[in-house]
Amino acid sequence: MSRHFRRAVIGIAVAVITFLSLAGPASAHGFTSTVYVHVTAGEDNRIRTKLELEYDLFVVSAADYEKDDALFRTGDAAFDAGDTAGQAAALNSHARSAVAYATERFSVVSGAENCTPTQVGGFTMGRREGVPYAVLHLDWTCPGGGGERQVRSALFPDSEGYVKGVKTIATYQLDGLSGSAALDAAHPAFSLEQPWYERFWEFFRLGAEHLLTGIDHILFLLALIAGSRRLREIVLAATSFTFAHSVTFLLAALGLVDVPGRVVEPVIALSIAVVAGWHLWRIRRRGGHAGDLEAGGGHFSLDRAGWTRLGVVFCFGLVHGLGFAGALGIETAWSWTLLWSLLVFNVGIEAVQLAIIALVFPLLAVLRHRAPTAGLWVTGALSAGVAVMGLVWFTQRVFGI
């Protein structure tokens, strides 16, 4: 292989890694937020909503929107001090501003008319993924005449400049109807009478978008593809990864597993570096024979290295499942309302994962077959770039850089 061609393939691989690293933040779940809503029946035919909003984002956004500097000062001080009672007190002492912000961007509609909100009780505090969340209860009085009832959310829009791509995860149990929905800027409303297939499509789309925008999960998958010597290896690795993260995803939904994000996120970053580094180690140890199978292959024609790698992928898949669960704030006990929606969310993740494998692996397979040396350089450069990004993210997440 000529020196110019070698430089070209390395340049292409580096360009791909650079593009991916610039396409998203260092954390798959950073610089964004999730709002949680539960809709039930209130008193006197009202509709009650329970809103859970990330506290520091809520304080900054409400203070800015309402020009309430005192809310920002007291709320921010309580946040920095980790004072839960002080956080609730800051919101309650500035309830007018906080409620006005929330009800300006969140609403319940009956027919063509807006329902009127009334705060129920004061603000309380909770936590999700180790992050303080403000809890706001509202009762909505809707005009007579009936009509389709909708919930709309435009909380924390991109235009505010604080976060991007906020999701609203809603569940409802009202008048014999129950279900769940996922809202974002492109889909800001859902009907309380929506058919099941619309609800499932929303969560399928959310799962697909989560993987596409979760650059660390994509790089992990690329590291798997680059290090797979045969089609059966990437199929088994992807299956192992899928099974593993599905296990922890469901265990989190059952309330049996609860690992804080500050532990999960660094391990996800480390998994990227380890899986990519595995292929680099084989190249250094075996050179041009890094893609050869060792003697003594057993079931599924995997050699000892293949089985060891499969075990490593499975273990890291368990951790990635906690990351997927954290994306939906799954920290409470099993909810039948969310069960099928969560499974469809997982299917959305898998659909994108399989699409990436179907696109990338055949290209690498053809390159390895027609130009083995070039294929080795490309997968090596790809793995090196992924490993570096994984180590950078691991350092950032451990030290909070």
Characterize this entry briefly.
With 401 residues, this protein is of the alpha+beta class.
Write the layout of secondary structure elements.
Layout: H1 3-23, E1 34-41, E2 47-54, H2 55-66, H3 69-81, H4 84-93, H5 95-105, E3 106-110, E4 113-114, E5 116-119, E6 124-128, E7 131-141, E8 149-153, E9 167-174, E10 177-183, E11 189-191, H6 196-213, H7 215-227, H8 231-253, H9 261-286, H10 304-327, H11 336-370, H12 372-399
Parallel strand pairs: 1-9
Antiparallel strand pairs: 1-2, 2-7, 3-4, 3-8, 5-7, 6-7, 8-11, 9-10
Word description of this protein:
The protein is α+β, with helices and mostly antiparallel strands and 401 residues long. Helices cover 58% and strands 16% of the residues. The protein contains twelve helices and eleven strands. The longest helix has 35 residues. The radius of gyration is 24 Å and the shape is elongated.
